[in-house]
Amino acid sequence: MNKSLVYLVRKSFINFFKKLIKKPLKALGMLLLVTYYFFIPFLTKGVITDLGLNTHAGFVLIASIGTLYLTMPLTLTYFKRKGVSFKKQDINFILASPTSPKQALIYALSKEVYINLAMQVMFLMAAVLVFTVPFLTSIIYLLVNIVFSNLLSYSLAVIMYASEEITLKQKQWIKRIVYVVLAMFTVFLMTMVVSQTLESGFDFAYIISVLSSPVVLMIPIFGWQLGWLNLIMLGPTPVRLIATGLFFASAIGLTFYAYRMKVSGEYYEDALSFSENIALLESKKGDISLTEAFGHKKKNYAYKGELKGLKSNVIFHKQFIERRRSKKYFLGWSDFIYLIAGIGLGLTSLFWDGFIVPDYFLEIMVGLSIYLAVFFRPSADWKSEFKNHYLFLMPDSPLNKLFNASLLEHLLTFVRAIFLVVPAGLLMRVSLLEILYAISLNVLLKAMMTYVSILIEAIIGAKIGHTFASIISMVVSVIIMIGPVVALFFTQTLSTFLIFTAISLYAILVLFLFLYLSSINLRNIESLEE
Amino acid sequence: MLEVSHLTKSYKKTKAVDDVTFSAGQGEVVVLVGPNGAGKSTTIKSIVGLLRFEGEISIGTYNNKALKAKELLSYVPEIPTLFPLLTVREHIEYMALAYGKAPDEEKLNALLKRFDLDDKVDKLGDELSKGMMQKVSICSAVIVDPEVIILDEPMIGLDPKAIKEIKKLILELKEANKTVMISTHMIEMIEDLWDRVIFMKEGKVIENIVRTEADLEDLEELFFKITGDSDE
């Protein structure tokens, strides 16, 4: 490897830790994240054992799914000449300098090496501690896999990106063929599993047998990789031996081809375009989707509108106009899905006797609302307000600014609550009062969660890192929701009105607490900068 | 030293650069000027070897994509972007290593002092302002002692002292017989620097003027006269 690239990797590695020492909270967050990551095998041990998958065959199933659905999508991006992460600094300092184009590509690919290694270590732990695979077998499997699968995937990336012997048109064709093969494989897998399930019920053993079948193991590259996994975990068969042989041969052959091929840097234009797209994505920080950054234009609708409201109230009207211009009918699919869910629930209770009991209407509606508020958080409009300096320049109190920045979100929650609760309530023939209770609780609980998110994810997240903050936010949300969940259990024994009042008061209290805490922390732009 | 011959670059059906030909000799300061969308940046990125194109570009006796050609050329991009985890000093040292040279500490320290970076040597790339980043980019391009240096809008974001220094530096490079190519909108800034000015419009070279052969006219006036754009 080129001296300068070794210098770059070494210095960046050292400086990463030096920088982390200067930010102890962020360091602690990262440490907790890493610990959590390595605990995943232990966390899933119970479920895996209950499903009877804590065997060698179970490991084959999990590792096959991991290979097919985690490794494969990444490799497929190489076929589209998009998977290698080039940034603007790579273009200016590496591609523009006399660095070999192949080494520049390997450097860019190596950015993922830490994640890849961490994943392999987690797999090793899982194999030994969860799937009871002997340590020696596990370590041999993983070491061989690390060497050969990386050789295979890196050489494929180098060839698809940098080969100037294979024309762009030919690369397009290779990409299409790979997609067709994989589509055929998916159809085959689905057909087999669905037909077997309909015939004799769902069985993991059947999925394992399909994934280990010759049809799968003979799929070029991806199937061959599974050959080695099957061979070492389940023992030799002629097909597994052939697939493994082809896996090793293709890894060595493609590496040799990639090493020998001549490269002058024709791919630099793709790398440059990728780096510009990434820079656009980073500069817009959430205001632009991945597909938009990569060239797909967002559709806007003509809407003139008129800005109303004084001081921070203008934020609400601005958001309203923006939504009219981005959504044709003001509401989008993510809103109408609540209507479909509401009608679905109502119809189920009508036609599926005993599955949904109308007596538990409030519990079902509020429970659903709690679940959605904690685990589903679509991008909210308030997030983009925090990136604007005018939010801090506006002569209004932080409390008003926060309220107005999240007002549209509350109104949308109200609409979604009506969509969900009204059809379900009417079809279940519950009282109007219960429908009103359910709508009110939906709105209050969601509003409460909005301010929890603002404080923890946006404000505290700026200090401790956003990934760590979103995990904390999730934990805090679960803790906060314990109260309402416990209260719901008493709906049948105590009066509905009492439970409604108790949850409402609790939600209002927590809502104002987090709104207040957020407002006192939102003094200037620095409160939101890392 | 730098030869661009029949350079054409298309994006889908749009020709960003259309049959551009020019050359720059040793010790010559060439300025590429033109309105937005004239094709200046595309021309520069093609010379640096970042784009696929039709035509021929050579640096010295080498095709511009050859590593030997790249060893002769250094580049200051329009928008400076640094490695977030390398310090100011490390960026410049990195660049020297990339060109196969041991970092010349004396030269490096002199450059840092010249561009007021000597008190920021240990700052990381993502801790610097845009102007500071630009200065680091300039120092990194100069440390490798290139035969050809290409500066894309080098004065944007710089403070007056740094602009003065970069003008001085360009003249020193010219004295040292290096080829300097500058792309800029800030015509008044390069008034006393240029030897050759290439006017581009709509992807084409519309005028290639050598200072010694031209009646010394105000460059800004010349720009509006040639491009047909009025400043009124």
From TrEMBL, chain A:
Protein keywords: Membrane, Transmembrane, Transmembrane helix
Keyword set includes Transmembrane: yes
Bilayer-spanning residue ranges: 27-44, 56-79, 113-133, 139-161, 173-198, 204-229, 241-259, 336-353, 360-380, 407-428, 435-456, 468-490, 497-517
Pfam families named in the record: ABC_export
Keyword Plastid annotated: no
Signal peptide: none
Official protein name in the record: Putative ABC exporter
TrEMBL record, chain B:
InterPro entries (alphabetical): AAA+_ATPase, ABC_transporter-like_ATP-bd, ABC_transporter-like_CS, ABC_Transporter_VariousFunc, P-loop_NTPase
Keyword terms of this UniProt record: ATP-binding, Nucleotide-binding, Transport
Alphabetical list of Gene3D superfamilies matching this protein: P-loop containing nucleotide triphosphate hydrolases
ABC transporter domain sequence ranges: 2-227
Database matches in Pfam families: ABC_tran
Metal-binding is among the record's keywords: no
GO molecular function, one term: ATP binding
Domain of life: Bacteria
Protein name: ABC transporter ATP-binding protein
